[in-house]
Amino acid sequence: MNARKKKKPQASPEETPEVVEAGQTPEPNDLEETAGATDGEIVETRPETAEDWREKYLRVLAELDNFRKRSERERDQTRQYAAEGLVRDLLPVLDVLEMAQAAEGDAESLRKGVKLAVDDAVRVLKDRGVEAIETEGQIFDPRFHEAVGMAHDPDKAPNSILREERRGYRIKDRVIRPSRVHIVIAPPRTAEQDGEE
User: Fold this and answer.
1) Mean pLDDT for all residues in the chain
2) Single pTM value for the model
3) What are the domain boundaries of the chain?
4) Which superfamily does CATH assign the domain made up of 130-191 to?
5) What is the pLDDT of residues 64-90, one digit of tens each?
6) Could you tell me the end-to-end alpha-carbon distance of the chain, in angstroms, rounded to an integer?
7) DSSP-assigned states of every residue in 97-136
8) Spatial distance between the Cα atoms of 69 and 56, rounded to a whole number of angstroms
């Protein structure tokens, strides 16, 4: 068989792409014309118009708005169910209180049931980093204590805590609820003490 060789058509000088030598940077026009070209075809790109930029802007703005709405939804769900773990841990405390309430017997057995419930509640809070604010033997500190009463006590220093009415709690340095306390005030000055000065 006689195999005939096909001649490749010669490209005219205008159609021949320029060869860029190593170390040379192609002209920007050359890059635009050849970007996306396949098998020798030349594709011309058009410059982006203000309308193109406006469409891009609106698309990004819509994506940002969707992201914001999704974040708000997730935050709301987190807020709604944030207490779920704490509630689950406190349910046994409620069970003990209900059993103590339903129990028949004397006041001592009721007291024991309530003490079990209190101990369980304190344990649950402690596991979550909640601590009781100390008041015994402390000086009144308005950051942690709320004064609800005052009295004279010659055995205690002025501004010290006389007694606690309601326990306060905190997580680290953040006060969840201040302790309600009665504080010692200095006795009023007598005429004799005023005359000595």
Assistant:
1) 79
2) 0.53
3) 49-82, 87-128, 130-191
4) Head domain of nucleotide exchange factor GrpE (2.30.22.10)
5) 999 999 999 999 888 888 878 888 888
6) 138
7) HHHHHH--S-HHHHHHHHHHHHHHHHHHHHHTTEEEPP-T
8) 20
